[in-house]
Each structure stands twice: as C-alpha cells, then as structure tokens.
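Recap from last week: sequence in, structure out.
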Amino acid sequence: MLWSKQIFKEFPHKSWSRNRLDKIIRKTDRTGTSKRLPGTADKIEEVETLALSQEDLPQTHHTQRQIAR
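Predicted structure tokens:
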C-alpha cells in the first residue's frame, strides 16, 4: 500500500511491520477507526448462555466454533 510506504519513510526508527500497518490502514478505511469496536451486550449474554448451558445438560455440548457462529 502506498500509505504504509510513506509511514515507513516518515518514521524509520520505529520497528513496525509493513503487514501490520497495511492491516491497520485497511481497517481504518473500512470502519473509520483503528480502535476495536465494542461488543454488544446481547452477543456477550448469548455466548455466556451457550457456554454455561453445557454444565446443566450433559451430552448437549457446543464446540467453540458452534458458539462463535
């Protein structure tokens, strides 16, 4: 990317990787920020329910991938 080349030229003393800079630039272009977007309380509660339901009901476990979906 063009931007990462310019950043490397401007900050040669930094030990940033080009790949990481490209990822940050793409994320900023896509979302408008480089910060993590906050998770919603609904999703957090849903995952918690799925993960904890395994304790009460034997043989009804969910894999990590199933919970992630």
